Amino acid sequence: MKQKSKPFSAKRPHGAAVARPALVLAACALLAGLPVAAGAAELASVTVQPSSVAVQASYDGRVEAVRQAQIAAQVPGSVTELNIKAGDRVRAGQVLLRIDARAAEQGAAASGAQVAAARAQLDVAGKELARKRQLFDKHYISQAALDQVEAGYRAAQAQVNALAAQAGAAQTQSGFYVVKAPFDGVVSQLTVERGDMAMPGRPLLVVYDPAQLRVSAAVPVTA
Predict the structure, then answer these.
(1) Whole-angstrom Cα distance, residue 83 to residue 68?
(2) What is the CATH number of domain 63-217?
(3) What is this structure's pTM?
(4) What are 136-154's pLDDT values in tens digits?
(5) Residue 87 to residue 104: CA distance in whole angstroms
(6) Rounded distance, CA 193 to CA 74, Å?
(7) Cβ–Cβ < 8 Å for 70, 184
(8) Could you state, in order of their start, the residue ranges of all structural domains in the chain?
């Protein structure tokens, strides 16, 4: 018994077949700048432009003077005169304080007296040398005698030079007992009072120039 075969026909969804061409046509119309048919989906567009963004940050800092000096004592002694206080404005060369310099002044005076005595001896030695040279020229004394007098004169001259150097050092040191302002500025710190004992290297005061200031702050690398 033979069975009759029926012809095969594939069924496709008609809705999907119609929607796909419509979307393709709408996209092509947008790209070509043509008006899109009613009912087609509109695509939103955004214009991107560069702009600057302000970033603010705050850090702790310290205001300090570009020019400042910590003045320390160079000689020991009691503070006998104090002419300033913290916050005072000072001028360059102004006397800020004095340290007891009586011992230094006595030493300088003694050194000066020794120099004067040595110069007097040098004057005597010079006159003796001139007299001996006249005698030598007249053949009244030997060369050895003249050499001895010349050696004495040179020794007297060396003594004068040594004592004069000591006197100069004493005079220079006596100036350390007077503390003066190194430049125009303001006294920011004062660590001594009248009657205090000053010691070499110990700070006495700090002077700064308010005309030039700077700010120091620690800023992170990732800031």
Answers:
(1) 19
(2) 2.40.50.100
(3) 0.59
(4) 999 999 999 999 999 999 9
(5) 31
(6) 17
(7) no
(8) 63-217
